[in-house]
Automatic annotation (TrEMBL):
Domain of life the protein comes from: Bacteria
PROSITE patterns: CBS
Originating organism: Nitrogeniibacter mangrovi
Domain CBS intervals: 42-106
Keyword annotations from UniProtKB, A to Z: CBS domain
Name this protein carries in UniProt: CBS domain-containing protein
Matches recorded under Pfam families: CBS
């Protein structure tokens, strides 16, 4: 490549010879340890589209959506893209669907995601500002403290504006990036396995 200088520009322009373009490598996750930056294990919604569903979706369709998208958590949003809640595989496969259906005199198949989701006012979240200063170990301890395998990361463009969901933390993704084999179990067991690896 030969450089061509233009005095009117701050950047040097180059002429291309043989060149290839880069493409992202889907499914490739960077290996991390407890000292790695927290953003290394955050799903950045500026780069990866959020997996979302409407509040009216029946529970059997929610399970299918998770399988098809290869995720364990879905954001529940309305037509204006406002976050109404979230739902995880634990919420779907745990006792909540049965308890709600019995309390309302309905069959589990009649429930929608709005009936069992974690409402937005109960969602645990961290600010992007704090996340940028945190480590993977900090995230693990925070998730264990709140007793959830998922948490959201929010940011505000300007003071006084409504926060926007910028990212997602997932304990299962953190485990994969730390080289821990896939696991299925309750929250306490999940973090016991992760913390055994990092020596926490």
């Amino acid at each position: 490549m030969n450089q061509v200088h233009h005095n009117s520009h701050a950047l040097d322009v180059v002429r291309l010879g043989d060149v290839q373009y880069q493409v992202p490598e889907p499914g490739v996750l960077r290996h991390v340890d407890a000292r790695s930056a927290a953003v290394e294990v955050m799903t950045d919604l500026h780069r990866v589209p959020a997996a979302t569903i409407p509040p009216t979706m029946p529970l059997d369709k929610v399970r299918q959506a998770m399988v098809l998208r290869g995720v364990r958590m879905l954001l529940v949003v309305d037509e204006q893209r406002a976050v109404k809640g979230l739902v995880t595989t634990h919420d779907l496969l745990g006792e909540r669907p049965v308890a709600v259906s019995q309390a309302r005199g309905l069959k589990p198949a009649e429930l929608t995601v709005a009936d069992i989701m974690i409402p937005v006012e109960s969602i645990e979240a961290f600010t992007l500002r704090d996340v940028l200063k945190a480590s993977v170990g900090d995230v693990i301890h925070a998730l264990r403290h709140i007793g959830r395998q998922h948490a959201l990361v929010i940011e505000r463009d300007e003071p006084g504006t409504a926060p926007a969901v910028r990212g997602i933390f997932s304990a299962s993704q953190i485990a994969r990036q730390m080289g821990i084999p896939p696991f299925v179990g309750d929250v306490a067991k999940t973090f016991a396995e992760i913390e055994a690896v990092i020596g926490a």
